[in-house]
Specification:
Layout (H helix, E strand, L loop, with lengths): L1 E5 L4 H12 L3 E6 L7 H4 L4 E5 L5 H7 L5 E4 L16 H16 L3 E6 L12 H13 L1 H17 L4 E6 L2 E3 L7 E3 L9 E3 H14 L8 E3 L2
Length: 220
Amino acid sequence: MRVLILGATGGIGVLLVERAVADGHTVVVYARSPEKLPQNLRDSPQILIRKGQLTDAESLSDALQSVDAVLSALGPAVSRGPFHPKGEPLAHAYSLIIRVMKERGVTRLIALGTPSIKDPHDKFSLTMSTLVTGVSTFANAAYKDIVAIGETICREGDTLDWTIARVPLLNNGSDASFVVGYVGDGRTTTCLTRIAFVAFVLRELAEREWVKARPLVTSP
């Protein structure tokens, strides 16, 4: 399968590129600074590098040529707190991405999200509510952007087969196991390794179990 990966030069993105290549996919990396990708990946014959901005419709369209699916590790840097740009820039980028996907006939999108994006299947969880409230309070611009990302994908991606993989606190552990459910269901927890998120994305790409859904993906 030919997949376009967004956010490929970040911590999760690099892992996603590595795993996608290992699974035999052809990977198109669309990035503002593709030189940040490790040299061994830049040299891989399975990886095509396209340099461009998330605001550049023409470059995005070129990168999406013959692509079967878009896998996105884009997300606001909550750790930057109040320094995240206001105005929901990533949500606006998703609006353009979705428009260009439709123009190119690309229908599959798997995107990174967080529990700040609500789902009707969620139940009350004091721990998760505290975490989301903390993000809203101390990183409000990032919180608004991630909420807007969820709204944009659901509203404008009406003809797409989208999946928003919501993740809790991420860490660099080596355990790739995960459970999939919803907030407060008694199964999901409050942490997930980055490699487990990648494992979920590649499994979902193959199995399409959570199309038009916003599952919470966590460590067991």
